[in-house]
UniProtKB/TrEMBL annotation:
UniProt keyword annotation of Iron present: no
Lineage per the UniProt record: Eukaryota, Viridiplantae, Streptophyta, Embryophyta, Tracheophyta
Protein name according to UniProt: 3-hydroxyisobutyryl-CoA hydrolase
Species of the source: Manihot esculenta
Signal sequence interval, chain numbering: none
Reaction catalysed by this enzyme: 3-hydroxy-2-methylpropanoyl-CoA + H2O = 3-hydroxy-2-methylpropanoate + CoA + H(+)
Amino acid sequence: MASLTSASAKVKTQHELVLVEENLSARTLILNRPKQLNALSYQMISRLMELFLAYEEDPNVKLLVLKGNGRAFCAGGDVSAVVLDIRKGNWRLGAQFFAKEFILNYVIATYTKPQVSILNGIVMGGGAGASVHGRFRVATENSVFAMPETALGLFPDIGASYFLSRLPRFFGEYVGLTGARLDGAEMLACGLATHFVPSAKLSLLEEALHKVDSSDPANISSIIDEYSEQPYLKEQSAYQRLDIIDRCFSRRTVEEILSALEREAMNKPDAWISTTIQSLKKASPTSLKISLRSIREGRLQGVGQCLVREYRMVCHVMQGKLSKDFLEGCRAILIDKDKNPKWDPPKLEFISNSMVEQYFSKIDDEEWEDLQLPARFHLPGYAAAKL
Ligand SMILES: CC(C)(COP(=O)(O)OP(=O)(O)OC[C@H]1O[C@@H](n2cnc3c(N)ncnc32)[C@H](O)[C@@H]1OP(=O)(O)O)[C@@H](O)C(=O)NCCC(=O)NCCSC(=O)/C=C/c1ccc(O)cc1
């Protein structure tokens, strides 16, 4: 029988935002802001961090399950508050949010006990950060995955330059630049999910996980295997187009990627190529350029290095000195909802390499410092790389 517990926390609402279920050696954390699609607020991230760190020390805990209440696992970081902060000129509050979130991503990526994320709904931005770095990711027929940041004037953060760059071939560049939505079958095919379980079987799976008394990933994997199915990958899936994706998204620059897609479209008109071109043309040109460079650098870096670099980048975005596209993207998509952002600079060709370069440099501010990741000791082999 599950019991609801409340570990030590200062603010009462934190307990309501992340519910905890205890079952023998398993702990289930439930993101509980269903009306906002479980968008992660600062309090939620703080609470998750507190719970993850406490459970790592607790020998009675062997397995963590993470899931969302309602139709979403998690639709990303909570963008509603940040817009107010930036408008007031308080970009450091945004930076503080990201520092906390990225450290949580790092703790998850290097966690010493297995984490099973049940992705039975929307998984976007920060929701991917809370799950993809963990050991097991269970997709269902309700999963909708996307990294939609370039449409918002941001870039795929939360360590996405690490995991996107490790997807097969150039699929990560495609997912990260276009913000394309993937279903559960596509998530499994590309490796973002480790298992696919039909939602009708989730309660049985969870019951089985509640009885687990081991942290051995092989044990957990075989339990999830019992409920897993091989889903149908639709013929129109982007994952069936890896050859075109490779031909186009392997190009050196965003301009070359677009030209390659346009050439493909001329040779063989196709709805998927048109949609892909349209997504790129609607996104912030600055976001596209810094995202491509970030994913390319990520190929050669560990998850910690990726997060430190992304933190520099996100601080530049929050500071708004180099570009105000993030504020404009939030206005157009979340506030006025006219879906018509006016990006500045408005075109790819106006953004030089040296402008891109600045996003990767330290912030010129005496009070600012690079992200300090916590030292993580005694990691078992499986705690390091999950993808
Ligand atoms: C496609 C979605 C997921 C579902 O669409 P829908 O089914 O038509 O549902 P709604 O859009 O009506 O969403 C239901 C409610 O959830 C809210 N919501 C839905 N995602 C959100 C959300 N990320 N935030 C804060 N409310 C939300 C949304 O505003 C709405 O609230 P309300 O109008 O009061 O009913 C749609 O909500 C959507 O595009 N959400 C944004 C997804 C997204 O871009 N996520 C990644 C964002 S970037 C990121 O993670 C970092 C952000 C950030 C964080 C902190 C910072 O300091 C700086 C930056």
